[in-house]
Specification:
Layout lengths: L1 H91 L4 H91 L5
Helix pairs in contact: 1-2
Length: about 190
């Protein structure tokens, strides 16, 4: 009986040590899971910031495009006004017809040059915007991949946490059985 009692006492101590070990593993996994949650939160904030910056860049480009279009319209209007004035002067001053015609041609060439420069500038800005858009899309894709990986890691950590928790419950149940057995042994008259 004494030998059985000592043997059971040893098993109880082993079970307590095992339970302590599982508890420590559970605490370590909980800490790791907290780190993963914080990292994921930082990534989500960073993604939100990138989206805001992308939206601002797009709005700035639209404002610039509108201003450039207004400037072009103003240039067109100015050129048309000058053309009308030159045409009237041509009708009034027939003796200066050749000079006015040459001046009109110069103005048309200047207008075409400005129009070409504007078109080149608009194409350059469109290419720059497309490049920025591609870079932003790439960054968003990378962040989405990172968030996906973190979610997968979180699932694995949750699964491991559940397994440790289940093992801890089993150990606690074994400890309870050992305790009941110990009490039963202590109540037996032969052991007293």
């Amino acid at each position: 009986g004494v030998f059985l009692y000592n043997h059971l006492q040893q098993k109880v101590r082993n079970a307590e040590a095992l339970a302590q070990k599982y508890k420590q593993q559970q605490e370590a996994l909980s800490a790791q899971l907290q780190v993963v949650y914080e990292h994921r939160s930082r990534l989500e904030r960073s993604l939100q910031k990138e989206r805001g910056e992308h939206k601002k860049t797009k709005e700035d480009f639209l404002v610039y495009k509108l201003e450039a279009q207004e400037a072009l319209n103003k240039e067109k209007q100015d050129s048309m006004n000058r053309y009308g004035a030159l045409s009237s002067q041509h009708k009034i001053l027939k003796n200066q017809h050749d000079d006015v015609k040459k001046q009109l041609l110069d103005l048309q060439l200047q207008h075409n040059s400005l129009k070409l420069e504007h078109r080149k500038s608009l194409e350059a800005h469109s290419q720059k915007f497309a490049q920025l858009q591609q870079e932003k899309d790439s960054e968003v894709t990378n962040l989405q991949d990172t968030v996906f990986k973190l979610r997968e890691e979180s699932k694995l950590l949750r699964k491991a946490h559940q397994e440790v928790h289940s093992q801890l419950l089993n150990a606690q149940a074994q400890m309870e059985e050992f305790r009941q057995l110990k009490e039963a042994l202590q109540k037996m008259p032969g052991l007293r």
